[in-house]
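Supplementary Data S3. Sequence and structure tokens for construct A.
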Amino acid sequence: MSNNHSLKSLVSNLAQYRKRQSLTQADLAALLNLPQSYIAKIESGTTDLRTSKLVEMARVLGLEVMLVPKANLYQVNQILVGEEHSIVRQTPAYMYEPDESDELDESEDESDEFEDE
């Protein structure tokens, strides 16, 4: 998957989180001391988002930017899906998908449940 898709997904998630906090582009721009038009350009994908602005925007929205090893993306996403305030609702196409060897054997899990009865 291209880096462009990943950036679009990231920017889309930032915009969704901004909206969930009932912030307008103008509100976010004021918090960042930037023009509203810059936020609009970032969210529409017509300007490149600098890393420093990404970190600043995320922190103003109560988020933190971090690097996650690719092999752990699926697990991290599963944790986020369970979070009440998660901005990730489904696994993006570029994220790691587990293969059969990563799946938990349900028969092992079920046997532990009935041992205490």
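Construct B, processed identically:
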Amino acid sequence: MIDKKSRRVVIINNIQSDTIDQAIFILKSDKATEPSKSLDRDISLEAQKIIDNYINQVERLKKVQEPFSTRERNRHKPKRPSFFLPVTLTAGFMLAVFFLMIYFG
């Protein structure tokens, strides 16, 4: 299908981000009819702000979600019984039996 309206497209490459490789912006038609150097500069600055805001939001979400997901994982882990309590109870029982054998034996 061919659209008879022409639109200006701005493609930004070489974005310094681990997340974004390329950004494509389609300009609104009312601004696309008046090309000029100042408009091009304004468009580039606005596009860069949009990209920077997106990257900041993604990084903030990663920082917030990572500790939460670790905490959630640890909360659902079954707790292993302590080693100290069974050993102490066994030793106490054995001492009680030993003293009972000496006292009654």
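The two ends are 103 Å apart (CA to CA). The mean pLDDT is 78.
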